[in-house]
């Protein structure tokens, strides 16, 4: 994933630097986006070369999400500040909101249940 997202981030960073005068809100986003990519790449290489703890691997994936979120925020700034491109959209129907939140709750509950099922209990690990 680092290769594909790295190409996207570098291309978007170069374009963002070129249009920074038109969109000043991009200035803090570009270093965050590029920095998160470099941290994520470095931690990924570190995790491949040397076995790491679960916390380090979680940080690696977290920085990956920050890099992708940076791309989203840059695109959002450019889209929102472009003149004449904003069209008033109707609000989402209430049923769609209910379906969205129910899927979030169901997904979280399912993952929690699966985690409980697959994690060995401390009682079973004690020697008899």
What does this entry show, briefly?
The chain has helices at about 1-20, 30-50, 55-80, 95-120, 120-125.
Structure report:
The chain is mostly helical and 128 residues long. The protein folds into 2 domains: 2-88; 92-119. Helices cover 74% and strands 0% of the residues. The chain is built from 5 helices and no strands. It has helices at residues 2-18, 29-49, 54-81, 94-118, 122-125. The chain starts with a helix and ends with a helix.
Helix tally?
Answer: 5
Structural class: mainly alpha
The figure for the number of domains is 2
Helix amount, in percent?
over 70%
Number of strands: 0
Mean pLDDT comes to 81
* Strand/helix succession: HHHHH
Main beta sheet: strand number and arrangement?
Answer: none
Distance between the termini: 45 Å
List low-confidence stretches: none
C-alpha Rg (nearest Å): 21 Å
Shape: flat
Percentage of β-strand residues: under 5%
Give the helices and strands, then pairings:
Blueprint: H1 2-18, H2 29-49, H3 54-81, H4 94-118, H5 122-125
Helix pairs in contact: 1-2, 1-3, 2-3
Characteristic terms for this protein:
128 residues, mainly alpha, 2 domains, 5 helices, 74% helix, flat
